Amino acid sequence: MDPNQEIISELKALNEKLDKVTKPSKLMWTNFLSGTFRSLGMLFGTIIIGSILIYIFSQVDFTKSVSKWVEDTLSQIRWEKIVTPQNEIIEQK
């Protein structure tokens, strides 16, 4: 067999395989399935990580630190500038 004929027959076989792989319907179906499984994987991964974080945060007691922060913040506020007596408001009018 002629070497050129061998190359041509191999190129034809390769071209047929490429036609099968690059069919639009097959590409759409493959991409749809891969997108579906990718999104399901992200969903399950997010659920697992979220569950772990919720469990960890439920074990930690934030009430002491938050109440201390609120107490410190409230002690630094100058309430006399914020709250004015009612008669001063009436006099300003």
3D architecture notes:
The chain has 93 residues and is mostly helical. The protein has one domain (3-92). The protein is 86% helix and 0% strand. The chain is built from five helices and no strands.
Supply database-style keywords.
93 residues; mainly alpha; 0% strand
Please specify the SSE layout and strand pairing.
Elements: H1 3-21, H2 24-59, H3 63-76, H4 79-82, H5 86-92
Helix content: over 70%
Strand content: under 5%
Shape: rod-shaped
Supply the helix-strand structural class. Answer: mainly alpha
Which assembly state applies to the chains in this document? single chain
Outline the biggest β-sheet.
none
Provide the number of structural domains: 1
Low-confidence stretches are: none
Separate helix tally: 5
The overall pLDDT, averaged over residues, is 85
In whole angstroms, how far apart are the ends?
110 Å
Q: What is the alpha-carbon Rg in Å? A: 36 Å
Number of strands: 0
Order of helices and strands: HHHHH
Briefly characterize the structure.
The protein is mainly alpha-helical and 93 residues long. Helix content is 86%, strand content 0%.
